[in-house]
Amino acid sequence: MDNQSIPVAQLTLDQAKEEIGPLRKQIAQWGKEYYEQDSPTVEDYVYDRQYQRLVQIEQRFPELQTPDSPTQQVGGEAESQLTKVRHEIPMLSMGDVFSIEELMDFNHRQRENRDVDVEAEYNLELKIDGLSLSLVYENGKLVQGSTRGNGNIGEDVTENVRTIKSVPQELPEPLSVEFRGECYMPKESFAKLNAQREDDGQPIFANPRNAAAGSLRQLDPKVTANRDLDTFMYYVPEYQKLGVTTQAEALDRMRELGFKVNPHNRVVHNRQEIEDYINEYTAKRDQLAYGIDGIVEKVNDLETEEALGNTVKVPRWEIAYKFPPEEQPTIIRDIEWTVGRTGNVTPTAVMDPVQLAGTTVSRASLHNPDYLKEKDVRLGDTVYLHKAGDIIPEISKVNLSKRPADSEPYQIPTKCPACDSELVHLDDEVALRCINPMCPAQIKEGLAHFASRNAMDIGGLGPKIIEQLWDKKLIHDVAGLYALTEDQLLTLDKFGEKSATNLLTSINNSRNNSVERLLFGLGIRHVGAKAARLIMAHFNDLDQLMGASADEISAVDGIGPTIGESVETYFANEQVQSLIEELRQSGLNFTYLGSTTTVDESSDWNGKRVVLTGKLVEMTRTEAKDWLEAHGAKVTGSVSKKTDIVIAGEKAGSKLTKAQELGVDVWDEQRFSQAMKEEQ
């Protein structure tokens, strides 16, 4: 009988001795993967459950506790080339509880402390799914940012932290003080980053916490700057320097100083108020723009907090209530393989539909062959489904007890599902790739990308239309779009004269786009919209870029060797050169037009930080963005405390919610249109 199936309270000393060694080894390995490598192999709740069991065994049998036990360590020794930083005041991790009853027991033990009189007043905060961050200011200026590391020694990430928009470089007061909080990656950014990494054949991040950690701990701050990290600050070790007496006051004071502080804290006094808060945010967690994995309870009075102090590993004045994992069982019916525009072939599990975190889920990415093999997913398997980072459906494990008797290991395909070419692994990638440049699936995906809003912005050219154009052999690459006629379009299903005219107008208008849109639309590996703009602003026209070396491209500010080599390799291809010549003959603009835009410095919009969200009716978002930038505004993709105005169209989502939470000025399209008229 497996000892783990025996409750700790029923274990004998011999059974505990037998179990504790392998358990410590397993937890230490999981901790190393989590803290040091930013690449966990098990879900947080699995680690938490096993860690809690180890704590209970050591509490029942104190003679088995050793100094090298994971329960006596704060964190891992970070493996990186970053400079080490010693924390003058240790950054401890929190203890965990997993039920209301355990939380009440913790509070009861706290109030029974003979040395400290603890009032039943607590500050409750959301537990952000990120990594701990320390910010040190001297005379009001940011001088150091560091990670927690092992609690005593962390890593210097100052230059990386300077790229995070929500971190003040200078305070409005000349304070010399340390602030602590959480660095995190918003759900939307996490999903985009993983989608991009998957497309590029890179390993995906397991959850937003690991994505944030991997992004903050980069040796190159430029990489961090592109990862859309954010922060919530929540703690000041030397609170006396801020002139506050409670945790709630400390949060308000940090807001005044320009830090981003989570707005959902609440002061509570009894079990009912605590339960109400936990229930409220358990229900709301899926709607938040960032991941949370629990609730943090802190003694509100800071003198009491200081008097309670810490154990070797955890504070006595705070505790984390961890959300139970939300999982649903379902059955694998099929595994589909799809080809992306870069040739990456991705498996997707097709399952019986289940309700999970407020949505119906019937598909989940299996990411790559290695992941599929590691999970040992087979057709007919019963699997448990959860949402990584509360957003991405993912299979956590297979229920082997329900595996069909005739089950066989799933065979990874060797041929492309779209063109039957041999599949390959490139440059030690985990991804399986089709390298046939004429693969129809890649071309069709590439066409959709070329027409997308941030590329050539060809309205009305969606995947279904592309599929029809391809099947009727009316196009074979992006250049073919510019040879389409009205008569050809009228042969498509549900296409009338108006639809044909509108699409041809949109295609024709795209000829006049600034060239960075074309460069992004070509779908060159690693070249996003921002990189395309930086490159074309430097080289000015496409011919100049095509004649440039990888080193010359890499030297552009914000561009590195990976992009430089990718661009050079792309334009060296003879088929690409033929395509570019076809586009030239079709009358596409090859010149960068961004620099010709003159900014109206007298405009009321000059210097304003603006975010566009939702669907605009009277204009496209691109038109709105161009107008704003021409009037001196900076249009950003995310809402922060520094945002001046959010312009919200129809069906605005998380950005509108965030703006309301932060008290940012929100305009509807009508108000914006009126302001535009007044500027004329």
Describe the structure.
With 680 residues, this protein is of the alpha+beta class. It is built from 24 helices and 22 strands.
Task: Tag the structure with descriptive keywords.
680 residues, alpha+beta, D-amino Acid Aminotransferase, Chain A, domain 1, OB fold (Dihydrolipoamide Acetyltransferase, E2P), seven-stranded antiparallel beta sheet, five-stranded mixed beta sheet, 24 helices, globular
Residues in β-strands, percent: 15-25%
Assigned CATH architecture of the largest domain: 2-Layer Sandwich
Shape: globular
Gap between N and C termini, in Å? 81 Å
Query: What name does CATH use for the topology of the largest domain?
Result: D-amino Acid Aminotransferase, Chain A, domain 1
CATH class of the largest domain: Alpha Beta
Taking pLDDT < 50 over at least 5 consecutive residues as the criterion, the unreliable ranges are 75-79
The averaged pLDDT comes out at 87
Rounded radius of gyration (Å): 28 Å
Tell me the number of strands: 22
The CATH superfamily of the largest domain is DNA ligase/mRNA capping enzyme
Structural class based on helices, strands and sheet pairing = alpha+beta
Total number of helices: 24
Number of domains: 5
